[in-house]
Amino acid sequence: MKFADLGLSDELLQSVLDAGYDEPTPIQAQAIPAVLMMKDIIGIAQTGTGKTAGFVLPMIDILAHGRRRALMPRSLILEPTRELAAQVAENFEKYGKNHDLKMALLIGGVQMGDQVKALQDGVDVLIATPGRLMDLFERGKILLTGCEMLVIDEADRMLDMGFIPDIETICSRLPTTRQTLLFSATMPPPIKKLADKFLSNPKSIEVARPAATNTNIAQFKVRCTSRQKREVLRQLLRTDNVSTAIVFANRKTTVRELAKSLQRHGFAAGEIHGDMDQSARNAELQKFKDGDISILCASDVAARGLDVKGVSHVFNFDTPWHPDDYVHRIGRTGRGGATGRAFTLVASEDAEAIDNVEKLQGTKIPNSSSRSPRRKSASPARPSAARKNPSAKAAANVPPARNASPAPNANRGRNALHGANSPATATTPNRRRSRASGTGRFRSFWRFRHFSPLPFRGEGWERGCSAQAPLNFG
């Protein structure tokens, strides 16, 4: 089947051919005709199969007829992350170059001024993250009553990020006669409930079992300890013919530390995570796409929908907490029919998480043949002189002559602090013992350090200053 068989316009077909595509993927072949027929869609497909073009292409043809109005977008696309929203915007620019369509991108991390101005001029396509959209809506900067199409992309990720209440609020503000498209790689029960509530007689399109991984990706797990993970990762990066790779970690602090560690060991590594502002994240992504860096350390903010060509490897430095995230992480490689390799470093604390991933997939992930680095064995302890010679042991227990007869009051302050039978009293050198005993300039330090700087009066002061009475630290 060719794109020309799907009912797209000649201008749009030319844009698709210019982008280098001729044959649609299975999800595109089934979704595009149904969208053109104005049906509601539930699309379930593994990541990397072209879900984005499955709704972008028919939307361009549908929106080609009509006019835009200020503050009232004609269509709305909801994305869970800024990066995925920016990628969808790039798709509209690439495929809609032969159409007179205006687009606006509403994402956090940037100022609102330009976004509000674009809305005032009128837009055909509004691509937004739920947080920024709700912010502008509550400020009265946008009206949703003229929206004809709604696309909820990566719905399961929306669930994980807690956006479902916002999506329900947004859907309740839209016209009931709209067309709704819902796309996701997995379909947990809460998303099914959302679809039943806001979609009207939808057509279900499922080109892969929910949570299925790409068969073009070779998956492996590497058993190691937490301390060995960095060394194992460096070993794999050097020996597994890695051209470009994304390394995922569960925590943002781990991402930062891992990127710095790889840079210290000579790797061209960058980082991307939620604590970075949007301009810095875009700059790192562009470096990775341009080949200035070959390794990108990322949190799950980059796991959904990012389409970077030529990623040969994905490494899970940590096993993801949510099994569904594993599918999206390794889906960054093996895209567009290419092959890829995915390694997951599994320590003892990752055992439950990797078991959940294997249960979700229904298959066991094979162990890698790569060996974990062995710890250096400690040299055997040499027998002590006392063990070789019993007489030496007896001699060792004899105290030095200079400590044989300590002054009667030498340990008075030390005994007051630690007790008369404290082992520190018998083993502390004379220099330190004099400091503990309250002689010289340390006397006031040891006696008065725990008292209030206010003037002292009465019986408590006298008892506190008495060297014979134990000090009260309560």
Explain the overall architecture.
The protein has 474 residues and is α/β, with parallel strands linked by helices. Helix content is 40%, strand content 13%. The protein has helices at 10-18, 26-36, 51-63, 82-95, 113-121, 130-138, 155-160, 164-173, 189-198, 229-239, 252-264, 278-290, 323-330, 351-361, 385-388, 390-396, 412-418, 423-427, 430-437, 443-448, 459-465; strands at 41-44, 75-78, 103-106, 125-128, 149-153, 179-184, 203-206, 217-223, 245-248, 269-272, 295-298, 313-316, 340-346. The strands form two sheets. Strands 3-4-2-5-6-1-7 form a seven-stranded parallel β-sheet, sandwiched between helices. Strands 8-13-12-9-11-10 form a six-stranded parallel β-sheet, sandwiched between helices. The chain is globular.
